[in-house]
Amino acid sequence: MVLINENFLQLQNSYLFSTIAQKRAAYQAAHPEAGIISLGIGDVTQPLCPAVVAAMHEAVNEMAQAATFRGYGPEQGYDFLRQAILEHDYLARGVTLDEDEIFISDGSKSDTGNIGDILGAANVVAITDPVYPVYVDTNVMAGREIKILPTNASNGFCAVPPDFHTDVVYLCSPNNPTGTVLNREQLTAWVDYAKREGALLLFDAAYKAFITDPELPQSIYEIPGAKECAIEFCSFSKTAGFTGTRCAFAVVPKALMGQTAAGEKVSLNALWNRRHTTKFNGTPYIVQRGAAAIYTPEGKAQVQQTLAYYRENAKLIKSALTDLGFTCFGGEHSPYVWLEAPAGMTSWDFFDLLLEQLNVVGTPGSGFGPSGEGYFRLTAFGSHEQTAEAIERFRNYFGKK
Amino acid sequence: MVLINENFLQLQNSYLFSTIAQKRAAYQAAHPEAGIISLGIGDVTQPLCPAVVAAMHEAVNEMAQAATFRGYGPEQGYDFLRQAILEHDYLARGVTLDEDEIFISDGSKSDTGNIGDILGAANVVAITDPVYPVYVDTNVMAGREIKILPTNASNGFCAVPPDFHTDVVYLCSPNNPTGTVLNREQLTAWVDYAKREGALLLFDAAYKAFITDPELPQSIYEIPGAKECAIEFCSFSKTAGFTGTRCAFAVVPKALMGQTAAGEKVSLNALWNRRHTTKFNGTPYIVQRGAAAIYTPEGKAQVQQTLAYYRENAKLIKSALTDLGFTCFGGEHSPYVWLEAPAGMTSWDFFDLLLEQLNVVGTPGSGFGPSGEGYFRLTAFGSHEQTAEAIERFRNYFGKK
C-alpha cells in the first residue's frame, strides 16, 4: 500500500473556529431572542470597489471574443500587474525591484505554505507565538524542527530576534492576530539577525495596507540589506477585499541565496521560479485585471475609502476598550485589536462571558498559540452599525463596574 | 545560510518550447514573407461560451454589493459546483461519490504536483513515456525514485501494467501528448495491477471531454474497485476553455487508504483535505460560478459546440495525414494527433522540415521523453481556416512523393 507522508500525523487538529461556531449556535438555540454580533471573523465584508468590478466585467468580455480571448498566461503573472506592483507598492516607497522578482499567485496562504518546497528539511524554523497557524502546520508537514518565539506584553507583542541560531524566520507585520506593527528599528534588528545568522526571513505583509504612519515600513525591503535575506508575501485579500477573489504576490529578490549542504550557493529566485512554473499555472486573467485596477487613480481612492471604513471600526474598538480599562495592542495600523482578558480569566472564560453577557463573539487568543492565553482578538471587519452596537454593550457591561 | 531543497538540482531544464519559439522566430526573420501556421500549441483558442460569460458577469455583480459579496469560501469549493460535478460528471455515468470526495482547485497542474505532499518520499513512482513533464519534475523535487514505462507503436502508445512493483502510477487518458485513450479493458488491467501491488493510481482525465464513444470510460471510477486505488484529476481547461480562467477538481475517495511504514492505515481523503485547507484558500467565487454554468442545459450545448469545433480539426488532421501514408495515433477522442516522422528522421529533423518546407510548426515528440523520439505532436486547437491551410500544405508536399 502506498506510503503516506507521516509528518501529517504530527499535525495538531485545530478546533478553534469550529468550537466558536458550536458555542455560538448552542447559545443562540437556548436564547433565540439574542442578537449576537460577531467581531470575530478575519474576513472582509465590504464589496469590491467599482474600479475592480468594472475591470473584471471588461476582462470577462475579453474572454467572450476569440480576438481578445486569453488562454494560458505567464505562470508568474501578467506584465501589466507586475509592473503596477513594482511602481506603486515598491518604487513609490523607494524600493527598486525587477519584474522577475515578483510572482503573482492565488493567495498568500498558498505562497507561505508552498515556499517550503524550495527549502531543505533540515532547516530550523522560528515562528512567533501567537501566530497564524499555516506557518506551523506547513512546516510540520515538511518535518522541520520548529522553535517558538513567544511574544507577550513585555515585548509589546512584537517579536524580537532570539539569542540562538535559526535558519528560517516567519514574521507577520502588521501582525495577525495581535495587530502589532514592527517599526524600522525592529525590522532592522531582524535584518541584522538574518545577516549574522545566515537566516532567511519570510515576511508576511498581508495587512500592510492598514499602515497609515508614513514612518512605518510597509515592505521589509525598505530596510537596507533585506534583499539579501528576505522573501516578502503580499496580498490583495485585505488590501482590496479579495478574500473570495484570490490574488496575491511573493517577492523573491535575485540577490537572495540559499546553499547546499556542501556549501554551494543557489539562487532562491531561480528555485521559486522553477517551483512556481512547475506546480502552478497562473492566476485567472480576469482576477489579475481586477487586481491591477486598484493601482489606477480611482481604484486607489476607492480602496482607501474601504480601508478607512475598517480603520474607523478599529479606532472605535481600541479607544472604547482602552477607556474601559482594558490593556489593548494593535488596532492602529491593523484591523485587529488584541486585548487582555480581565484578571484571572482565560481566553475561553472571557469568550463565554462576552457571548453570554454581551452577546458578542470574538476569538480567544489561546487559539493562536500558548502565548495568546489570557488574550482575545476583536476585528474591525464588521459593519459600522454592528461594531458600534457591540461597543455600546461593552460600555454598558464593563463601564458599570 | 538557509539550506535549499537539493532535489531541485536534479531537475532537467526543458528547452522544448523555447527552442521551438527560437527556431520559428529565426526562420521568420530570415523569411519575412512566410505565413507560418502553428499546430503546436496545447492551449485552447476559442472564447468562453455565453453561459459561462453570463454567469461570471452575474458573479462580478454579486461581489459589487455588500449584501451578496463573498469573502473566503470553503477551501474545498462551493456546494453548487461540487454538486453539479457529482451529478453531471459522475452520477450520469453511474458513479456515486460524496461531496466531500470532490476538491475544487485552480488547476490540474497544481493538483497533480501538490498531491505529492501527502505521499511518502520512499514511494517508487511509475511514469509513462512520453509524458506531460509535470509528473516527472514534481517527483524529482520530492526526491522520489521514478521508473519509466515506455509506450510505443507496439503497445499502441497505451501504457500497460509492468511486471514489477511500483507504489504510485501516473496515467493520463486521453493522453497528452499521444492522444491515445485507455479503454475499459486497459483501465481494468491497471486497477487489477494497483490492487495486486497496493499501488495508487493518479489518473489525469483533463482531456476526458474529447471522448465521444459511449463505451470508453471518462472516469477511472467506472472501473469496479477503482475507488480503493485511484485519485482522479479533472479540469475545466480543455473541457470549457478555462486555461486562462483556472478551475479544476480532484477526486479523492474516502475508501482510499495509504499506510505508515509501520503498517497503520490512513485515509488519503483526510490527508488531502488537510493539505488542501492548509496550503490553499479556495478557487475564486467568480470562476466557480463560471464553471458551474457549463452544467446548465445551455452551457452543456455551448461547450459541446466548441468541442465539436476542435474535434473537426482533429478529424481533418488525422484523416489527411493517414491518407498521406503517415502512421497516426490519437486524434479521435483527443485534440492531439501523434504521428510518426518519415523513416530515418528524428523528431527535430521533421520539425525543421515542416518549418522550412511547409511553414508549419508542431511539437517534436522527443521533447516529451525518449520514447517520443521519431514522433511528432499536432494539435486541434487552431482555427478551422489555419488548420485546413496547414493540411493543404501537407498534401501539396507529401502527396507529390
From TrEMBL, chains A, B:
<keyword id="KW-0032">Aminotransferase</keyword>
<dbReference type="GO" id="GO:0030170">
    <property type="term" value="F:pyridoxal phosphate binding"/>
</dbReference>
<protein>
    <recommendedName>
        <fullName>LL-diaminopimelate aminotransferase</fullName>
        <ecNumber>2.6.1.83</ecNumber>
    </recommendedName>
</protein>
<comment type="similarity">
    <text>Belongs to the class-I pyridoxal-phosphate-dependent aminotransferase family. LL-diaminopimelate aminotransferase subfamily.</text>
</comment>
<feature type="binding site">
    <location>
        <position position="15"/>
    </location>
    <ligand>
        <name>substrate</name>
    </ligand>
</feature>
<comment type="function">
    <text>Involved in the synthesis of meso-diaminopimelate (m-DAP or DL-DAP), required for both lysine and peptidoglycan biosynthesis. Catalyzes the direct conversion of tetrahydrodipicolinate to LL-diaminopimelate.</text>
</comment>
<dbReference type="InterPro" id="IPR015421">
    <property type="entry name" value="PyrdxlP-dep_Trfase_major"/>
</dbReference>
<feature type="binding site">
    <location>
        <position position="377"/>
    </location>
    <ligand>
        <name>substrate</name>
    </ligand>
</feature>
<feature type="binding site">
    <location>
        <position position="246"/>
    </location>
    <ligand>
        <name>pyridoxal 5'-phosphate</name>
    </ligand>
</feature>
<feature type="domain" description="Aminotransferase class I/classII large">
    <location>
        <begin position="36"/>
        <end position="394"/>
    </location>
</feature>
<dbReference type="Pfam" id="PF00155">
    <property type="entry name" value="Aminotran_1_2"/>
</dbReference>
<feature type="binding site">
    <location>
        <position position="207"/>
    </location>
    <ligand>
        <name>pyridoxal 5'-phosphate</name>
    </ligand>
</feature>
<feature type="binding site">
    <location>
        <position position="176"/>
    </location>
    <ligand>
        <name>substrate</name>
    </ligand>
</feature>
<dbReference type="InterPro" id="IPR019942">
    <property type="entry name" value="DapL/ALD1"/>
</dbReference>
<dbReference type="GO" id="GO:0010285">
    <property type="term" value="F:L,L-diaminopimelate aminotransferase activity"/>
</dbReference>
<keyword id="KW-0663">Pyridoxal phosphate</keyword>
<feature type="binding site">
    <location>
        <position position="132"/>
    </location>
    <ligand>
        <name>substrate</name>
    </ligand>
</feature>
<feature type="binding site">
    <location>
        <begin position="235"/>
        <end position="237"/>
    </location>
    <ligand>
        <name>pyridoxal 5'-phosphate</name>
    </ligand>
</feature>
<feature type="binding site">
    <location>
        <position position="281"/>
    </location>
    <ligand>
        <name>pyridoxal 5'-phosphate</name>
    </ligand>
</feature>
<feature type="binding site">
    <location>
        <begin position="108"/>
        <end position="109"/>
    </location>
    <ligand>
        <name>pyridoxal 5'-phosphate</name>
    </ligand>
</feature>
<comment type="subunit">
    <text>Homodimer.</text>
</comment>
<feature type="binding site">
    <location>
        <position position="281"/>
    </location>
    <ligand>
        <name>substrate</name>
    </ligand>
</feature>
<dbReference type="GO" id="GO:0033362">
    <property type="term" value="P:lysine biosynthetic process via diaminopimelate, diaminopimelate-aminotransferase pathway"/>
</dbReference>
<comment type="pathway">
    <text>Amino-acid biosynthesis; L-lysine biosynthesis via DAP pathway; LL-2,6-diaminopimelate from (S)-tetrahydrodipicolinate (aminotransferase route): step 1/1.</text>
</comment>
<feature type="binding site">
    <location>
        <position position="109"/>
    </location>
    <ligand>
        <name>substrate</name>
    </ligand>
</feature>
<keyword id="KW-0808">Transferase</keyword>
<feature type="binding site">
    <location>
        <position position="132"/>
    </location>
    <ligand>
        <name>pyridoxal 5'-phosphate</name>
    </ligand>
</feature>
<dbReference type="InterPro" id="IPR015424">
    <property type="entry name" value="PyrdxlP-dep_Trfase"/>
</dbReference>
<dbReference type="InterPro" id="IPR015422">
    <property type="entry name" value="PyrdxlP-dep_Trfase_small"/>
</dbReference>
<feature type="binding site">
    <location>
        <position position="42"/>
    </location>
    <ligand>
        <name>substrate</name>
    </ligand>
</feature>
<feature type="binding site">
    <location>
        <position position="176"/>
    </location>
    <ligand>
        <name>pyridoxal 5'-phosphate</name>
    </ligand>
</feature>
<dbReference type="InterPro" id="IPR004839">
    <property type="entry name" value="Aminotransferase_I/II_large"/>
</dbReference>
<feature type="binding site">
    <location>
        <position position="72"/>
    </location>
    <ligand>
        <name>pyridoxal 5'-phosphate</name>
    </ligand>
</feature>
<feature type="modified residue" description="N6-(pyridoxal phosphate)lysine">
    <location>
        <position position="238"/>
    </location>
</feature>
